[in-house]
Protein 1
Amino acid sequence: MLKINKLYTSIKNKKILKNINLNIKNNEIHILMGPNGSGKSTLSYTITRKPYYNIIKGDIIFNKKKINKLSSDKISKLGIFLSFQNPIEIEGITMLNFLKNLKKNIKYKKILKYSKLLKINLDNLHRFFNLGFSGGEKKKNEILQLLILKPKLIILDEIDSGLDIDTIKIIFNILNYYFLNNKCSILIITHNTNIINYINPNLVHILNKGKIIFSGKKKIINYIEKYGYKFFNKKRICI
Amino acid sequence: MYLINSKIKIYKNFDINIIIFNNYLKSIYNNKKIKIKIINKNKYLYIYIKNINNKYINIKLLLNFYYFNIVTFLNKYIIKLKIDKKINLLLIEKYNLYGYNLLFNYNIIKLIVKRKSYIKYLKNINKEISLMNKIYIYQKESRIDIYDINIKNLNSNNFIFIKNYSNNCINNIYGIYILNKYQFLKNKIIYFNKFNNCKNNQKFISILNDYTKVILKGIININKNTRNNISYQNYKNYILSNNVYINIKPYLNIYSNNIKCTHGVNMGKIDNNIIYYLLSRGLNILKSKLLYYYSILYENIKDKNILYLIKNKIKKKIKECLIVKK
Amino acid sequence: MEKIFNKYKKEKYKYGFYTNIKSKTLPLGINSYIIKKISNLKNEPNWMLKIRLKAYKYWKSIRNKYPKWANLKYNKIKFNNISYYSGILNKNNKKIKKTFNKLGVPINNKKISIDYVFDSVSIKTTLNKILKKKGIIFCSISKAIKKYPNLIKKYLGSVVPYNDNFYSALNTSVFSDGSFCYIPKGVKCPIELSTYFRINNGLIGQFERTLIIVNDKGSVSYLEGCTAPIRLKNQLHAAVVELIALKNSYIKYSTIQNWYPGNKNGKGGILNFVTKRGICGKNSKISWIQVETGSSVTWKYPSCILKGDNSIGEFRSISFTKNLQQIDTGSKMIHIGKNTSSLIISKGISANYSKNTYRGLVKIEKNANNSKNYTQCDSMLIGSKSSAYTYPNIISKNKNSIIEHESTISIIEEEKIFYCNQRGLNNEKAMSIIVNGYTYDILNKLPLEFVIEAKDLLNIEIKNSIG
């Protein structure tokens, strides 16, 4: 579904990602882990083509289509969804109004149904978009938009940071349900090793200093937990 | 001449003493790390402070004006101060009056500041005179704090012009105006910016009583294609009498879309809750009001050196303002 | 981001068509003969002519001293190249009906009472029956001069005297038509009143005059809309609006101004010089709401004189400029009575090469005890070539009053645009969502019928300015 070939990127002439290769197939869940400042969020922004995140070299291919030069709204229309680490706030626009803008002919009943699924306080729908929402409410709002847009590739940037266990459970239950019932793939960017309790990844990648230094099965998360990321810096290990 | 010499004081805690008596100049300095070049010609004074070691040094400079039996309408003096790199300068202006004076003083001060210098300029008019001051500031990658304190002057007309000549300039203006009786103040501040990453912060607090008249004008100009500039302008005013006239004009001219810029004006009464709280702690009304106003003013004179110099004067003046004789 | 804004779409001003219709137009130029002729054409009583001539005499004396203090640049107006009157011959012409239908204000509208002003003449005032039952007078001002001379004599020029400023003097001497509204004691006007101004003729300057009087415990909501055809030459529009809110009354005056703004090179467009002022009696309230998107030059300061105790003045404004448009707008709040309060909220958005200025005056007089003012003026800049100015002026002479003034320059954060983009919304839509949010508090205060219209208007403006 998503294929990244020898990707080099920069922000304001500062090189960030170096030679990234990634292949996410249909119906796969991948996890991307790494220390702070390793370039995890940069990768998600590069895929969704945020301005100033320049591609120096390499290709990003989505469903056999090169998306290097597309604008981010077109990429979204192709079916790539990014859940932001820090969702923005917009004053003066209610949440409901914003959601109605996302998709034509979306029905109020459907929004209500999804909101109930996510256990969103229904009053929030009539409040201004994310304004004064708690961290958990903002993240739930992201998932609500996901359900409305029905994307094919979901990128979750730190979806679990700063949330309580109940909220994490709700979010991942819905994600798992969505994954089973729709043809889609998921890329999860996280710090949290506990994530294995909620979702079952096909592959785990470790990113450090702009390079993917290791890719492996689910169990390497245990090694991260035990020894930290330093463990993977030397190439002599094989698991 | 004898009289003059007996009155003139030289402050030893200042590195440089510049004394201007009517139009006669005397200067004394005692710091070996700097070199000073002084030219004095016909009411025009040029001072260049040079840093020899290329290390950061702290200097205190006192500009001391003495007036003795002067009766003129415009007594004009031009001072040009050039300051070298890496100098932390504390610049203080002082006025002394002797004999019978009737003058409208007109001083022009030009400050040219080079890179990595930090200047604190205390403009405290401590005598009851009429003044028209023009201050021009041209700076490069340095920081300048101006403490504009108007307490005693009768009639003052200030003009401050600030222009940046490079990126990363920092500029703060803190104004404290405590006026009563028939004091008059007109203040105009122009800030002109053509470069990036500059900060400009202007805060003015005024407490006005009796028949005072105040006109404050601040203009902020941010040029085209500049980036990451921060400009902040704030006026707080407390009016204690119905005969006060106050006019504030905070103007903004913005040509750049990459800027953080706000200005605010507050005109209001004192917060009765705080006064009530202080009263309940056993302070009397005068004392609690004094404390309250001082706490507001303190925001603008946080700097230790400055605070030490003018703390008592300000407290005294607030007291004078608050006690109304009927 | 820059790239997005630098692209232009072709100008689309929806109302830029011209109606070919027979009319009587006075020759170009201004002199006392022309003024007599205007008065004559309208069958005015002699006292009105005297007022006109007095104003003209004053204007003649200051003719070369037209005001230059505004932050606007435009070619000197040649007052002798303007025709001061153009009235159509047949008011029942079908073309007029068609024109107004095309403009989206059909003549058989049943919810709102509309006074249609076409060039210098009022065509028709609708729904008069409902109003008559309640004793409300709503008609064109020329009709009012003949029918209700006592009211006109008492109030015309009482808020904006002829010697108030350059354009009020000009307006008083040559004004042709406008609306008059009188709400009697204790009557709350059940429907929206509205006037629609249309400039059709190419040579004419429109000089409208509006007078609204609301008596004790009455209230009214009034809306003004304006359009003009596309022309390469500048056209002058100088209006005077006077509001009189007597005791315990309420006036809400909304404007949706959409005059032809000129093309993208700044050629043509209406020069809009308007003096609007209201006076508040005891316990009364006046609120101005304006959405300014048109005109190449706008000069407009709707003001309130808060004379009565406990009176309230409000001003809310959205001004959107693009291409080479210039707007200098704001408000004056003059507190005279006790316990008066005022509110100013101004939101300016400037795109492309345009200039957007806020100019305001808040004055608290000596005896205005416990008065309050809150001012908020925000500007938003789109693209790096536009500019924003704020020139507030705050004067206080009272110790018990509170003034708060805040203003910020905000930018559209790229982060927000990217977020909306990521959700599949294109730049245009993303911008319109953000701008809509930015102007939310003002749009919501408009009369319900016009909220959607104003929103659409803003969205079209955004479309045109980004492309």
Protein 2
Amino acid sequence: MLFNSLQFLLFFPIVTILYFLLPHKLRWLHLLVASCIFYMAFVPVYILILFFTIVIDYIAGIKIELATGKKRKLFLIVSLLANIGVLAVFKYYNFFTGNLNLALSASGSGFHLPLLSILLPIGLSFHTFQAMSYTIEVYRSHQKAERHFGIYALYVMFYPQLVAGPIERPQNLLHQFHELHQFNMDNCKEGLKQMLWGFFKKIVIADRLAMVVKVTYSHSELQTGPALAIGTIFFAFQIYCDFSGYSDIAIGAARVMGFDLMKNFNRPYFARSISEFWTRWHISLSTWFKDYLYIPLGGNRVSTQRMYLNLAIVFVVSGLWHGANWTFITWGALHAFYLIFGLATKPARVKLLSAIGIAEHSRVFAILSVFSTFCLATYAWIFFRAADLHDAWYISTHLFTGWGQVCSLHGLKPLITAVGGSDTIIGAFNLTLGCALILFLELAQRKAAHVPVLDLFRNSNRLIRWGFYYLLIISILLIGVYDNQEFIYFQF
Amino acid sequence: MRKELKKITLFLLLLVAAIWSLQQAIDTAYKKRVSNKFTKVMNHETDAQIMLFGSSVVYNHFNPKIISSVTGLDAYNMGFSGLFYVQYSGLMQEYLSYQKRCKVLIIGCDFDNLGKNEFMTRPDLFLAYTGNKNIYHSFYEIEPRKAFMAKYVPGYKLTLLSKAFYAKILIDKTVIDTNSGYEALTDKWEATKTQPFNSRYEDHIFELLQTATKEISGKGIKVVFAIPPVYTEGYKLILNAEMIKNKYHSLVGNNVYFLDYTTDSMCTNRNYFHNFTHLNAQGAALFSHTFAQDLIKIIHE
């Protein structure tokens, strides 16, 4: 079930009201059934895959806790293999087999491995990672094994974050299912406000920017450099609003019922370096990789070369987590390069700055840092969004061509015409609206540095506060895009 | 808690009021600013002695100027591409509710006319008028849930408005109508379907047409069902063509006529066609002339 659908508008209040009406001992069952309905609205049969990993991880968790010595590790490996095995079959088999077949063909071998014609279960990477974090934490004795099967199943399947995160840790979420949540008006209001902001980001900003991005990236050879640049910048904000919008709706929906999910985004485009960017973007995934891959590899308590290697491994795996495609691997590798290059050149950059008289804490430096980080992250998005490496290469090499025509707007004409469906006025309107929405988003987020955007007018009178909420709701109705666009991160 | 509930109720009431007012303002702006043959009927501005309703087979085939010059009666083409009977019946009923001059009402029979599309065609034409019972019924017949919500759930209609709808309000999109609603197709041959197929047909829609025909003819207006020429090769592909023609034929009675041009000699000449089911400008001119000659006989009957 999509958050941005009519079904969800009915589903959410019904589930929430029933949740508070039911006695505490039945609430887990109610939420579990609701989560099954939510998940089965996509491809019903794939719930069997979820049950398969849930049963294995549930048993593995108890076995790990009860076992001693090498047996603990054995049960952990069984659990990890089950989860990674599901990912390998459904997400990566065709990618690796396809590449292997290509290599075999190139070497003149007539042998080919068969490809599978299967659909990727929605949100697979999210719930398998959440399940893995449970058995790892039980193995590390940071979490007690859950004895209640239903509650454990709910930990993996809790509908707000089931298909696109945040990827929760058992220490944060599991105990909340045992606790009694009384209806709390403040939680309800804060949750609804966060959901409203999420819907606004998804339906109004992300889906409107998607119109321009789709045109740019599906026919990149027809576009000029400025058009490609606009499409790429729009994509940077599209993916941010799409994914952080989903997270806001998920966190808000859980909050209304009294659950506290982890923060997933923290104004990533205000980051001053790529390493800071990764503490602000998809926080639940980046901390997952840090805790369960980077630190076990040795983290930064190793030689410099080994640390660089660790970073490269983490980011290439992170790219692969996003999708079984060379574009995602390149995207991950590019971020690894940014980080390693940044670390390696830091002493020289500090010297250079002091030589030209720019203080590290000055406003100029801050602006330059935010701008350059945004440019680097946006350039990397080209590889994330392009259909294949050939397209990505074309876009990145043509990004700086044709800028001489920008002043006359001639260079943007093909883009404007295509966005408007051959109507240039509508095309220009969509482009202008897209720019205005990005500006609004950034200004609102800048102003609301330490509070949620919806609390910007917390201290103003009711007229202004309500006016702001009404403005957002009416914008969602009036300029929202309603063609049931899926969230980008569902495919992961 | 009670104070909070009061606040929430007030918030929601004001929200509904704001959305409802906005919806009304947009509908009003559309009705006032947009001028095309659809809005002219809804504003009760169009009336003619010969009125033609139907899909593209009316819009692109019946030239009112030729029909007027031959019959001596003024004619108006109310055809819309992609609109079948169930969708334009509301517009037709609205016209009949106010007309004072109509002598002949012609229904151009597309072979899909007695079927319906899964979704509304050109919803932008209809959305501002969901408050009108005739238009609402047409909408409801095709997409009942959407029609119901558009009329009764505040804000839902706003989510259906397309950029074309806004563009018509914001940009002056007055249609210059010098051909009394008619537009010809180009001479370029663009054949589409090549496999045999069954045209859409639903008994329920035929019964609606039957009831409407009785009402219109009862008012003294002559009703003419006309199937325009179909290119021979294309006609062969329509598997249920005879059944559909028989349905129209069964409606013939007092003040109700049926003209079938699918066996006309021009059906064998591809030079008159744009595709299997649509005449080009040359074909439409010739057909309009032939049709007008036949219409004279009916008018004087």
